[in-house]
Amino acid sequence: MDLFRGRGNAATSASVRAEPPLTASATSSVQSATQWSNGFVTAGPSRAGVAVNEQAALSIPATLQALRVLTGVFAMTPLHAYQRTDKGRKPADNLPGARLFRDDPNSHQTPFGFMELAMADLMLAGDFFAYISRGAGFQPRALTRLKPGTTVIAQHFDRQDGVTLFYDATLPDGTRERFPSRDILHVPGFTRDGINGLNPVRYARDALGSTIATSQHTADFWARGGKPSTVLQSEQRISREDKAEIRSDWQRLYGGLSGESVAVLDQDLKAEFLTHNMQENQMIETRQFQVVDLARIWGVPPHLIFDLSRSTFSNIEQQSLEFVIYHLGPHYTRFAQAITKAFAPEGHYFEHLTDALTRGDIKSRMQAYWLQRQMGMANANELRRLDNLPEIEGGAGSDYWRPSNMEVAGQPTANRPGTMPGADGDNDPEDDDVEE
């Protein structure tokens, strides 16, 4: 067994392959500013002049809702293992790897909590990493999430086998080591090199920064009690010291939320208030556009983050279906294939079951059930299990129906099994042989 490749047969190659040594990452040339930073990943300042990082991105309500929807719906979708057979596929949820994602990924997380966190790392950091703990027989027994920024990928190229990946990672106990790919579950997001996922917060920092700056400007405006900026004018010359004192007194007496007292001015001072026309500044339109822009960044339909300006009752259901197919579908595939590569034996694979997300309203669902029942595609018990209903005892639940007005293609009616005697339609077969 080639442990570095996950599967293989040593007898298939006569040459001996020399694996690169698994040495500590101190001897590696792979370095990163966030490699050993306890998971803090910064995206740097934006053009709007505000710092953009994970915490700042999550402070935007539209971002928080988008990630809640993405991670929550992704985590609630069950992940099943299957085995390929000559007759199709059959469930294989008894695999050790399947148990981790169905029942117990580790000692402190539920499957939902683990997959929700995995999806959050993918969306906010671009990659998800987990350390695979193995027990007897090299079987996986626990998954431990590695904080973003604490794992760096190193490559080794071999002309015979191509690129082999190693992971320089810091474990939760503080140890720092280089691990082969068999010990790390890695799910990259959208990538440009096939190895490292792109960090959405870093690449979209200008769009996120403008939203944060707009929100801060709005908050500052209302922190002043919704009062516009003030200019104090005088025809007399005022010294620098007097200007500072006048400004301090005005801010103390009339600035902020409590500045409601009547201003009494001397030294021929006049107060002029700079107006803020929110309509001309298109403040509401700007914030509305930013919500749609955030929906583009995180890949969610706008109506799921409560922007219903272009939604109708007739297309909401179709948009929800498109959300599962076009928005969550790629994430389902990348996770399922990464888990298959790490845990599935030959001839097995993992797949998310999205039936509960794509079912329509009750009327449409019942019509689909009725068509399947009439066509003999499903029996009553199979359809009842889809709605978590108990089975019906006896043939009423297990029998398959067949339309009585259909024939088997290419088979004559007289020779069809179960045809009544008498090809001419007479109920008495002996009459066919009677000579007049």
Please give the domain count.
3
Order of helices and strands: EEHHEEHHEEEEEEHHEHEHHHEHHHH
Using the CA coordinates, give the radius of gyration: 33 Å
Give the uncertain stretches in residue-range form: 1-18, 23-41
Tertiary shape: flat
Strand percentage = 15-25%
* Counted beta strands: 13
- Roughly how much helix do the residues carry, as a percent range? 25-40%
Widest beta sheet: strand line-up: 4-3-13
Pfam family, one: Phage_portal
Organism: Sagittula stellata (strain ATCC 700073 / DSM 11524 / E-37)
Protein name: Portal protein, HK97 family, putative
InterPro entries: Phage/GTA_portal, Portal_HK97
What does this entry look like structurally?
This protein has helices at residues 54-58, 61-76, 96-102, 111-125, 200-203, 205-223, 240-254, 278-281, 283-298, 316-343, 355-358, 362-374, 380-386, 395-398, and strands at 42-45, 51-53, 79-85, 88-91, 127-134, 140-146, 151-158, 162-170, 176-180, 184-188, 230-234, 269-273, 348-352. The radius of gyration is 33 Å and the shape is flat. The chain is an alpha+beta fold. It has a 3-stranded antiparallel β-sheet with strand order 4-3-13. A hairpin with a 5-residue loop joins strand 8 (162-170) and strand 9.
